Amino acid sequence: MDKQLQQADVLRVIIAGGGTGGHVFPAIAIALAIKKKVYNAKILFVGAKGRMEMKKVPAAGFHIIGLNISGLQRRLTLKNLLVPFKLFDSMIRAKNIVKRFKPDLVIGVGGYASGPLVRAAAKQGVPTLIQEQNSFPGLTNRILGKKADKICVAYDGMERFFDKSKLFLTGNPVRQDVVKLEGKYEQAMTFFGFSPDKPVLFVTGGSLGARSINESVSRNLDLFVSNNIQVIWQTGTSFYNQALELAKKYSNGLYVNQFIDRMDFAYAAADVVVSRAGAIAVSEICIVQKPAILIPSPNVAEDHQTKNALALVNHHAAILIRDHEAAEKLGQVVLDLIADEEKRFKLKEKLVGLSFRDAADVIAGVALSLVKTK
Predict the structure, then answer these.
(1) What pLDDT shows up at residue 129?
(2) 3-state SS of the chain: helix, strand, coil percent to 5?
(3) Residue 263 in contact with residue 192, Cβ under 8 Å?
(4) Is there a single domain that holds both residue 301 and residue 363?
(5) Angle between helices 211-226 and 240-247 (to 10 degrees)
(6) What pLDDT is attached to residue 239?
(7) Distances from the Cα of 173 to the Cα of 64, 106, 158, 177, 265, angstroms
């Protein structure tokens, strides 16, 4: 806590939360949108020590303080005994951070650090806003929603969980460089070494990969290649070497990498996307309007990825395959969708109404409307 915590007559904002890219990247997008509206705003991030925000936020040019906080492990472990003590320590630190930084506004984006900061701010009379990325909010945001002044959400029907008078349907902030695809198709095909005469399947399990998706793709590679389908396969780290070995069988039409740096090229090239159903992935798919087969992860709190996927499926805007059915069903579903141009067009049409292109800017505007004039 250094010069950032000294009072000055400028707008002062704390953004709290993180833990995953689904929390961190929207948080950074909101911070940048606030800076665009109020160029001299002082923005302090508060995250959890050891989590990805402690690297990603400074890399984006913002200051961050880390709390010693963690969640309960799903399996029995001694680490769970430390959770209440870490939470108590974090609540005291959060209270002190709010007192010393004197923010005009606190924004919670979900994740471990969000709870103590929003709670401390609300207790001290500081205006608060939370941003809920998923169609089914986590426990922390459901509790914070009672204290927060405004709540920005990405899906309809959230009045089931929050006070309707506080809700703003804004969508999720996404990285603009990822979803701007205009004029990139030819460049993308060259980047991947693909032919424009054949369809392209883009498979992603998120930055960490997804074992069930990877295993399903490996089982169906022959099927895809024999049907002239070119494949962009983002494996994550643990499956990468195995995928590289499999790729040696094929001379072309297959691009394998553990992480796709140019997601815009992957989306620009793709005729069909196979993806997990994390909040940000779903938001990106809606904006780029690519026909998608969603395979929700079963290993997330309260099965919120399935609920995210159903929010599209119920609008006839995506296809759902359950994780345990992926190995058996993925191959044929991909072939059917690639072959059915009318079906792909209908999915794209439905995605148009579910996309929010300027979410970060809208959320920044809602947040700034809470600031009391000095």
Answers:
(1) 98
(2) 45, 15, 40
(3) no
(4) no
(5) 10
(6) 92
(7) 20, 17, 18, 12, 19
Residue 245: both structure tokens together:
């070995």
What's the gap between Cα 325 and its chain centre? 24
What angle is formed at CA 99 by the lines to CA 97 and CA 105, rounded to 5 degrees? 80
Q: In this structure, are 307 and 329 located in the same domain? A: yes
Around 315, how many Cα atoms within 13 Å sit in the side-chain half-sphere?
Answer: 19
CATH number of the domain that 189 lies in?
3.40.50.2000
pLDDT at residue 1, rounded to an integer? 43
Indicate the average pLDDT of the chain: 90
| Residue 309 shares a structural domain with residue 256 | yes
CB atoms under 10 Å from CB of 373, counted, come to 4
Rounded Cα distance between 99 and 121, Å, is: 9
What phi, psi does 84 have (nearest 5°)?
-60, -35
Which residues of the chain have a pLDDT value below 50? Answer: 1-8
- Same domain for 250 and 211, yes or no, is yes
What beta strand segments (E) does 93-222 contain? 105-108, 128-132, 150-153, 167-169, 200-204
- Name 125's Cβ contacts closer than 8 Å, sequence gap at least 6: none
For residue 59, tell me if it sits in a domain: yes
pLDDT digits (tens, 9 = 90+) for 132-190: 999 988 888 899 999 999 999 999 899 999 999 999 999 999 988 899 999 999 999 99
Give me the domain span that covers residue 163.
3-172+358-368
pLDDT at 69 (0 to 100): 74
Q: Does the residue 52 lie in any domain?
A: yes
The token pair at 17 is: 């939360």
When divided into structural domains, the chain yields a total of 2
| CA–CA separation, 324 and 294 (whole Å) | 13
Same domain for 167 and 31?
A: yes
